[in-house]
Amino acid sequence: MYCYKELPKSMKTECDIDPASDKKLRLYLNLGAIGFAIVLAVIGNLFVPITQLYDVGGVGRFILRAVLMLACAVLYFSVYEVVHSYVAKRLTGEKTRIVMGKACIYSDSESFYTLKGYLLYAFAPVAVLGVILLLLNIALPDKFFWQVYIIQIINIAGAAGNFYAAYRLLKEKKELAVKDDGLKISYWK
To answer: What does the H/E/C string look like for the chain?
Structure first.
């Protein structure tokens, strides 16, 4: 079982993971994401020197490359949320809303997930897109490595909140009902 049709009556205690209202948590998550990004950049540099990113043959080409990377990042975030919605639909049978916020895009799910269901919902987009980006990095010539790898860094470092939520939830007892509205995670035990 991956979800509950409604919140089980036996689960009374509500807890929240809400970076928007907890400045200290938000700071730690941002520092964690930056840490992930630095480690991943160092690892990527072992395979293809980062100077390859800047070796484009002029300012105009560099600007074009930067614009293309930005467009790819926007596409990535859109596909990420589509995968989220698809996984939610498969797990719960319910549609999710994809919401365009001021500075972000997120999926808003009204479903109550089991712990296993929530972990699938949270990490499926990271895993699916991570594999696709890895295959692109392997298949494309080295001159495109960093364009793809930067999106991979965004993919993994951007999941810092998911990693933290998984850590918190796995520390709890196994019977949980988890609701993720895209900005805040609430869970009942």
So the answer is: CCEECCCCCCCCCEEEECCCCCHHHHHHHHHHHHHHHHHHHHHHHHHCCCHHHHCCCCHHHHHHHHHHHHHHHHHHHHHHHHHHHHHHHHHHCCCCEEEECCCCEEEECCCEECHHHHHHHHHHHHHHHHHHHHHHHHHCCHHHHHHHHHHHHHHHHCCHHHHHHHHHHHHCCCCCEEEECCCCEEEEC
Structure tokens at 132: 């696709």
Phi first, then psi: what are they for 121, rounded to 5°? -60, -45
pTM, rounded to two decimals:
0.88
Model confidence at 115, pLDDT cuts 50, 70, 90, reads: very high
Contacts with 39 (C-beta within 8 Å, 6 or more apart), sequence order:
none
pLDDT in tens, 25-67: 999 999 999 999 999 999 999 999 998 887 777 888 888 888 9
Task: Specify whether the backbone of 172 is left (phi greater than 0), alpha (psi in -120 to 50) or beta.
Answer: beta
58 backbone φψ class: left, alpha, beta (φ>0; ψ -120 to 50): left
